[in-house]
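Whether sequence alone determines local backbone shape is best considered at the level of individual chains. The sequence in question and its structure tokens are set out directly beneath this paragraph.

***
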Amino acid sequence: MQRAKRSRLNQLACHPRLHCLSQRAVGALPSSAKFVILSHIISFLHEVAMDSDALNTFLAVHRRGGISNAAKFLHRSQPAISRRIALLEQELGVPLFERVAGRTRLSDAGRVLIPYAERAVAAAQDAEQAIRALTKQNAGPVSLAVTGTLADGRLSTIMKRFAKEHPVVTLSLRTATSAEVSDLIRRGEATIGLRYNADPSGDLACEQVLREPLQVVCAPDHPRAGQRVKRLAELVRERWIAFPENRGRREIAAAHVFALFLTRGLGEVEWTAVDSLTAQKRLVEAGFGLALLAKSHLAEELRAGSIATIAVGDLDAHQDIVLVTRSGGFLSAAAERLLESIRRNYAGPDVSTTRKGRKRTPTRKGVARRRLV
């Protein structure tokens, strides 16, 4: 048996595709044990009948930080979760978790398994939804994940209209950073995502629905309120308010404001980091600084006159709002209708798409604009 096992591992090691995959997975680590772990997992994924429940349990233990929390999340007993993980580890021939300083964390094998498990569980969910869709065309759950600052009046209008037109569809909303939105879609925990800027990941389909211009805003009593300046250089001495530079946040952070000045050779600017759009607007209203914000974020303040704008002649700043779905993932009829509703409500002259490498034609854009009237 040991000889047959070594022979199988030698065959796997000689396979060029698997060799390439192992290099990506374990990087420059030279340990032969790491290669054996990876070989076992690849063999498991291709030769053993996949149990999506076991993989889902594995992912729950990882995401919830241990057996106890996973048991509560899955509404099962701790012994049942432990047995499920033990059986999966027995099939793989390697441990997936290890205890370090009283905490449960992934082993090397567990880290390799994560992306495969996520795709397998998401595919199983697709299959279940596709079967249900045969009998219930307009029913079922649709989950929407959006970047927090996009959960505004426009989105609430879309959701309200969709809920009215599809009363038997369960529509849910989650807010997150742009990177977290992509992760929720990738794992199948959300059906449709709305975030800033396209995600370069090949397993996601990104469709730009709006390129939104940004504008400089200030307090109504600011000396330049309502005026126009020729160059951004005239505002270099002002204090600026922006989001801190955090992983996954694609709103206008301090680094983006800096870039506008640095590319013009103006050096750095004075700024205050504020991790809340509402707080930023309140500080601008109170005269604590200027901010670079999208007009859609300022509708109420501009109507009330609590915030003013400064037009800047050489400023060309914008942010892309992007729809995200899983490449090749199943979308129910209800999900497709929600996608189309979002497209119509965000439609504009600069709308384009990276979905399947196509661009919208002018005729289609014109139709989308007429529907909004």
Observations:
- DSSP finds 14 helices and twelve strands in the chain.
